[in-house]
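User: Now give one protein:

AI:
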Amino acid sequence: MIKGEQRSRIHCQSPAVSMHSACVLLLCLISACSAFNIRATGSCCSPSELQGIAYSTGLVFVSGREVSFVGNSWFYYSESEQKIATLSLILIPSLGNITVLTKTLQDYTTSRKYTVTNGRCNITSLADPFARSCLPSSAVKYGSIKLGSPTQNLKVNTYTYSTSSASTKTTVESMKYEETNGCYDVVYSVTTRTRGGSLISNVDLVAGDHQTTISNTNVFNVPSECTSKSFMKEEELLGEIPLDFIKYII
């Protein structure tokens, strides 16, 4: 099971802005749960098939405002299928308890990503090929700790690493449970800042109930909402939020 935590606060009164904010939060949560697809050369990799559940809380800045949300997500990862799927239910208390139901499918065999938000579909292209879910070789190991009670606990190894773009820096902190068949994220935190140090988004994940087989392979089918003609155009999904801002969190 994977759990995640993402935090944020906003004082927003416009319904239009609220929906735009909800979409950005949605993209942050989807990104966190899909973060397994890290282009990496490290030896700590997830099993070839993995599914789990995530609880999340976090924050993201939208048009200079800070928005908070919590969510539950189910994720599915398959190397043989070269697909990653998520199903998420997001609650945004700071925007009047807006609820967003979303499901995504990243299909690397066709280089397409399907995102269904409250029943409406958006289809985009995947720029990169499928990559195994591994720690990057640049990851630094802090050490090991035990989570739980003295008699019932889980030993995890802690790591940190960063990735950068021309405008942002993203720092990842991860607690991983490691065994012979792979590595599992137990706690996962992703923080993105501008080059100047201003916070863009923060996502914290607490994970569990990992399973190394996919119980329902139908999650890798193209969503039925995306086979109809009722698509959500990109500008409808993102509204007035600048695209150059969105790309920093997805």
